[in-house]
Amino acid sequence: MDKFTTITGVAAPLPMINVDTDMIIPKQFLKTIKRSGLGKNLFDEMRFDDQGNEIPDFVLNKPAYRKAKIIVSGDNFGCGSSREHAPWSLLDFGIRCVIAPSFADIFYNNCFKNGILPIRLPQEDVDKLMDDADRGENATLTIDLEKQEIHGPDGGCIKFDVEPFRKHCLLNGLDDIGLTLQKGDAINDFEAKRAAGQPWLSL
């Protein structure tokens, strides 16, 4: 998992509540277990018409937001089914941070496990960042995880909270496998002792 320290990028405004995981990545794209390649289908039914043509009015199809790294959205982002493909598709598109007043719990947890920072903020702060994001290519935000700060295009600063353990994992690029591998020496020592004391278990 890539480390998340500081990112600077365009923020795409998505002023919708209850953005569910089927909107983020529709069910027909859930056949794969690969984490790559899903970005092209992110928000597929909102980005493309029935013939596969781009819908010009959708924010990520607008030239200013095609390389957005941040999404600013409304309440209850990531609700619906618990598919992990949702953060996979966001990350594959290039989204590293989602800012909203609230998130569905499973989606929120899955983001941290996949290198995406979900930031919960009061509605008034989200409204300010949504206004910043409406500026198009000038909607550049800087997210500093170490300092837990969001810096806007006008130089303003908004502080955010994040749990220390999750912050540690993102800063160091540690997913569940990475955390386990940190205990590699202890695991190897246990396996060696088990093999010596109970050799029949290795047959």
Overview of this structure, please?
The chain is an alpha/beta fold and 203 residues long. Helix content is 33%, strand content 16%. The chain is built from eight helices and seven strands; from the N terminus they run βααβαβαβαβββααα. A seven-stranded mixed sheet has the order 4-3-2-1-5-6-7. Strand 5 and strand 6 form a beta hairpin. The mean pLDDT is 92.
Note the quaternary state here. single chain
**Tally of DSSP β-strands:** 7
Which strand order spans the largest sheet, edge to edge or round the barrel?
4-3-2-1-5-6-7
Task: Quote the beta fraction.
Answer: 15-25%
Major sheet description: 7 strands, mixed
Helix and strand succession? EHHEHEHEHEEEHHH
Structural class estimated from helices and strands: alpha/beta
Distance between the termini: 35 Å
Using the alpha-carbon principal axes, give the shape.
Answer: globular
Radius of gyration based on Cα positions:
20 Å
Q: What average pLDDT do the residues reach? A: 92
Uncertain residue segments: none
Number of helices: 8
Helix content: 25-40%
